[in-house]
Write a structure and sequence with these properties.
CATH class of the largest domain: Alpha Beta
Family: Belongs to the class-III pyridoxal-phosphate-dependent aminotransferase family. BioA subfamily.
Radius of gyration: 21 Å
Strand content: 15-25%
Distance between the termini: 35 Å
Oligomer: single chain
Keywords: Aminotransferase, Biotin biosynthesis, Cytoplasm, Pyridoxal phosphate, S-adenosyl-L-methionine, Transferase
Pathway: Cofactor biosynthesis; biotin biosynthesis; 7,8-diaminononanoate from 8-amino-7-oxononanoate (SAM route): step 1/1
Protein name: Adenosylmethionine-8-amino-7-oxononanoate aminotransferase
Strand order of the largest sheet: 4-12-11-10-7-5-6
GO cellular component, one term: cytoplasm
């Protein structure tokens, strides 16, 4: 089929994320990708300001990742993980234990970010059962968060302004504190409220789930690192399992390899995904402490009750280790700092609010974005963006050049003006 036929079939039969099948939003045909750019039919080569929803940190067709994928494919592409293991999974687990905060020594390899969070929540629930507190079945979190689209994940997303409010009547009821503040000066008052809330519900809380330092799809809000210390203190005070969802923030996006490093805080459970494979294949990991693992073993089943068909997929594990090889060179630190410097140009825009953190640039308008129009004018500037709600933002590949970042800023400026 030629391009018009492909797009016509797509419109009639393919569901895209958060899109109606009756009145679908426009889609554009990608015919190639290389480095920081994707080739969009009708627009040519444009800078991918989304890094394929924040995952393609090394860009496209990276030779190290390509070679790892091909080498593993020549051996075997997949075997079940039940009763079997293989070098790519073992090596990836070894590397993750090595680079994550000390004590996160147990690794569960899942399919996707949402599944990683589901597994983390199961870990917390089973840990509480295994330590003699089966009545602890609820989770403490904060407003403004987003943790995925699967069922339990939806229950810890923002209950009012988030994407899943229509499901509130059928989701498990969780406990929500206020959004973490951006200013250090506001932390004490916020912390007092969170501590009071945790104390009120302590007897029923299994875990505390948050995105460290940056709330992603719930609103692209950075917050003070001091809040991470408060989360740790609250969890310790009440015997609650602290879960950090670093699916969006992990692997350098906020300026440190993991966002939790900004406050020197170690969670009990860590969720990773998105950039884990450099955007090549779907893979996620849930890491936990030995204490959590022992609690799970003491629960009714004695085992963690989860086991995806494609758990530990060798292709994904091999390319993930290759991505870690690229990160290990350390060049990403300079790249993220350079991107951050380039994104400071967004502060010159006439907009209610601009937020820049690491390799993340966000412009908030005072009204909902006309996403179709904003996308169109950004493409005319050579930038692929995906605005949502009142936000126009970018989380680009680390391999973007200074010219690429300037192009993205021009695209955002055009989208703001078209707003």
């Amino acid at each position: 089929m030629d391009a018009p036929d492909l797009l016509a079939f797509d419109r009639e039969h393919l569901w895209h994320p958060y899109t109606s099948m009756v009145d679908p939003a426009p889609t554009r045909l990608v015919t190639g990708a290389s480095g920081s750019r994707i080739h969009v039919d009708g627009s040519g080569w444009v800078v991918d300001g989304m890094a394929s929803w924040w995952s393609a940190i090394h860009g496209y067709r990276h030779p190290v990742l390509d070679e790892a994928l091909q080498r593993q494919a020549e051996q075997f592409s997949h075997v079940m993980f039940g009763g079997l293991t293989h070098e790519p999974a073992v090596e990836l687990a070894r590397r993750l234990v090595e680079i994550t905060p000390d004590g996160l020594d147990r690794v569960f390899l899942a399919d996707s970010g949402s599944v990683s969070v589901e597994v983390a929540m199961k870990m917390a629930l089973q840990h509480q059962r295994g330590t003699g507190r089966p009545e602890r079945t609820r989770f403490l979190t904060v407003r403004g968060g987003y943790h995925g689209d699967t069922f339990d994940c939806m229950s810890v997303c923002d209950p009012g302004g988030g994407m899943h409010s229509m499901w509130s009547a059928v989701l498990p009821s969780q406990v929500f504190g206020e959004r973490p503040p951006a200013s250090d000066a506001e932390v004490p008052a916020w912390a007092e409220g969170l501590r009071a809330l945790a104390a009120e519900h302590a007897a029923e809380l299994a875990g505390l789930v948050v995105e460290p330092l940056l709330q992603g799809a719930g609103g692209m809000r950075p917050y003070s690192p001091e809040c991470l210390r408060v989360f740790r203190e609250v969890a310790d005070e009440h015997g609650v399992v602290l879960i950090f969802d670093e699916i969006a923030t992990g692997f350098g996006r906020t300026g440190t390899l993991f966002a939790s490093e900004s406050a020197g805080v170690r969670p009990d459970v860590l969720c990773l995904g998105k950039a884990l494979t450099g955007g090549y294949l779907t893979l996620a990991a849930t890491l936990c402490t030995d204490e959590v693992a022992r609690g799970i073993s003491g629960s009714d089943s004695g085992v963690l009750m989860h086991g995806p068909t494609f758990m530990g997929n060798p292709l994904a594990c091999a390319v993930a280790s290759a991505s870690l090889d690229v990160l290990a060179t350390g060049g990403w630190k300079d790249d993220v700092a350079r991107i951050n410097a380039g994104l400071q140009a967004l502060h010159e825009l006439d907009a209610p609010e601009v937020r820049v953190l690491g390799a993340v640039g966000v412009v908030r308008l005072d009204h909902p974005v006309d996403a179709a129009r904003a996308t169109e004018v950004a493409l005319a500037e050579g930038a692929w963006l995906r605005p949502f709600r009142d936000l126009i933002y970018t989380m680009p590949p680390y391999v973007c050049s200074d010219d690429d970042i300037a192009t993205l800023c021009a695209g955002i400026a055009a989208a703001v003006e078209a707003g």
